[in-house]
Design brief:
Layout: E1 7-18, E2 28-35, E3 38-47, E4 53-56, E5 62-66, E6 72-82, H1 87-94, E7 97-101, E8 111-116, E9 129-139, E10 142-158, E11 174-179, E12 202-206, E13 215-219
Antiparallel strand pairs: 1-2, 1-9, 2-13, 3-6, 4-5, 6-11, 7-8, 9-10, 10-11, 10-12
Amino acid sequence: MAYNKSGMLQAVLARFTRIDITGNPIPGPQNSFWTDSLISISYTAAYNKQDDISITNGSGRVCMTYSPPQTLLRMDIGDINFCYPDPEAIEFLAGGIVFTEAPVAPETEPSAIGYAFPPIGVDPKPFGVGMELWSSQVQQGAVIGYFHWLMPRTFLQFTKDQQLNGTDPYNTGLEGISVENPNWGEGPDGSWTYPISSRCCQWVQEAALPDYSYGYAEVPEPTP
């Protein structure tokens, strides 16, 4: 599908995936999480900005100057906000504990009713989390497809004020970084079939959103 030069609008879908110390998606029944309640996320490329080098001669004239190249370090992520405080999504990204109530029937799953922050002095997500986003492609006032974003290893923390007042909505306050992950491969379900998945950020256009159900999803065992 040729690149269609569409404009980009808000993120409409997100999937988070647990990864191990080497960056591989971890197989298991609750090791991915789908949500369409994401409001906003921002990111900024961070570069190593080195000082310029210059030499002046005896008369004070600059006789040599050099600006070292700036190379990419990581992607800085900020302003991750959801429509409502979602205990399961927040735990997936930043650790902690989800409080649940007993299931209403033996065949149903327990329901989330609250959240506890990670313990003090402990890294709750030492291996990071894989993050995928889908944003709308807009052309002439209509959505014609989607951009699929991949940040294969993110580390996120609570860094902003948590406000409980009568005028501002609750702000999740998550920020962090995205770094390279050479072991993401085709992702948790083999759906990333493009040449590169290791960079700190990459995106492709796709015609439709993937099939999903809100909440936890299984990461299957990799095919031998």
